[in-house]
Amino acid sequence: MSSIPAIDANGLTKIYSNGRGCRDVTLTVGKGEAFGFLGPNGAGKSTFVKMLVGLLSPTDGQASILGHPLGSLEAKMKIGYLPELYRYQEWLTGEEVVRLHAKLCRIPKADADRRIPQLLTEVGIGQRGKDRVKHYSKGMQQRLGLACALVNEPEVLFLDEPSSALDPIGRMEVRRILQRLKERGITIFLNSHLLEDVEVLCDRMALLNGGAVLRHGSVAEMLSKQTTWRFKVGGYTPFLLSWLNEHTGLSVRQSAAAGNRAGGEPAPDDSIVWLEAELDHEEQAGWLNGLIVEQGMTLYEVIRQTQRLEGWFMDAVSGLNHRGEKE
Fold first, then answer.
1. What number is the average pLDDT over the span 60-84?
2. What is the pLDDT of residue 278?
3. Rounded to whole angstroms, how far apart are CA atoms 211 and 206?
């Protein structure tokens, strides 16, 4: 396997006259990897993507696509791009729009004739490819954009909010398409506000805020650091909580729903409470189990609650300034 990464950015910077943009972004995406790019509105995500696909020139820094400089013909021939804001010729049919993109990519007619019907079927347009774009819903136009981004069989696919106009069924279908592309070895760079898509599809991710990378790493590592364990304890006395914290060095607390069952039903008496703690691994949970029982209390239930990406995202940007679209 080649050691050349699909995307290699080093200090990539774009500063606009109003001071916005992105600053000193350094990241690497390996071949065949699905990479999620997250951040609030106005964080600079689309600016960064536009630099990678050659639509904007960096103010500073450098980057390459499969070893080719940004904006070079060699780099552009390797990529597909679905922008967040798209507009297609409404007087053309969906098939004609994709065929136009095939011509722009200098794809031979015989290859386009073979490829286009397959693409229209793959993205869920099918026979509606014969209809004019003016009759397409926004979701259908987004599917059409995905077909255009794939027409040149790219090695690196850039997607800027690819599911934003789709209903839940459509988002699931697009997610399945992207999973199949990933299985075929296509590198996917996914800029999305739909955190579930990133959580399900991506291997690694980066969080951009204020134009700078705030956090980055594998999705599994990021979420594993946010695992909450809950313990339903009977015969509870306040002594237990202070004793556990002092004895273990962990931060064990009474749940905000103390005295309640997991489903919100009232507990039979105040001596039954839920305790919770963020733990690094399940051995710590087993240790707490033993200590609770050792103190003569009853352990009714233990629940592991792995943090979803939405919670991780909110924790990461909590208290920070965000550059909204209207600021």
1. 90
2. 78
3. 12
Retrieve residue 178's tokens.
Answer: 């992207």
Q: Answer whether 0.85 is exceeded by the pTM.
A: no
Pair 80, 150: CB distance under 8 Å: yes
Architecture of domain 7-223: 3-Layer(aba) Sandwich (3.40)
Partner residues linked to 27 by β-bridges: 9
CATH of domain 227-306: 3.30.70.260
Other C-beta atoms within 10 Å of 117: how many? 15
Residue-range domain boundaries for the chain: 7-223, 227-306
For 305-327, give one letter per residue: b (16+ CB within 10 A) or e. eebebeebbeebbeeeeebeeee
Torsion of Cα atoms, 282 then 288 then 293 then 299, to 10°:
-60
Asked if 49 and 32 touch (Cβ cutoff 8 Å), the reply is no
Q: What amino acid is encoded at 121 in this protein?
A: T
